[in-house]
Design brief:
The protein has about 110 residues and is an alpha/beta fold. It has two domains: about 40 residues, no CATH class; about 55 residues, no CATH class. It is about 40% helix and about 15% strand. It contains four helices and five strands, in the order αββαβαββα. It has a three-stranded parallel beta sheet, with helices on both faces. Strands 1-2 form a two-stranded parallel sheet. The two termini are about 25 Å apart. The mean pLDDT is about 90.
Length: about 110
């Protein structure tokens, strides 16, 4: 999440972090907004429901859970540098391709 927020900030964009703990001060310094949930892993459901598309980057089990929930909701999920597979997952070779796939999937959904 840090690299994505840093990239958004550098490009003049906005980033929102939905944090697993209750202390907003623990958020990475590149986030524009940080929502401290104190929900632990349950915040994965909030992320999946809130996003129009997800890009999963080199994720561990928490990322797999977010991706699985999003796919179950019918949301597009793009995988970048992941070793696992889920039905409906789309793969990207580069960050730029992942963003393009996510943006295209969101446009197709409109």
């Amino acid at each position: 999440m840090t690299a994505a927020a840093q990239g958004a900030q550098a490009a003049g964009g906005v980033s929102l972090g939905i944090l697993p703990d209750g202390d907003r001060r623990r958020a990475n310094p590149f986030l524009t907004y940080a929502i401290a949930t104190n929900l632990g892993h349950a915040r994965n459901v909030l992320i999946a429901h809130s996003a129009d598309a997800l890009i999963a980057v080199n994720g561990s089990l928490g990322t797999v859970s977010e991706a699985a929930i999003a796919l179950k909701l019918g949301k597009p999920v793009i995988a970048l540098n992941v070793t696992w597979d889920l039905p409906g997952l789309k793969r990207a070779a580069t960050p730029a391709e992942a963003v393009a796939l996510a943006m295209g999937a969101m446009e197709d959904a409109r």
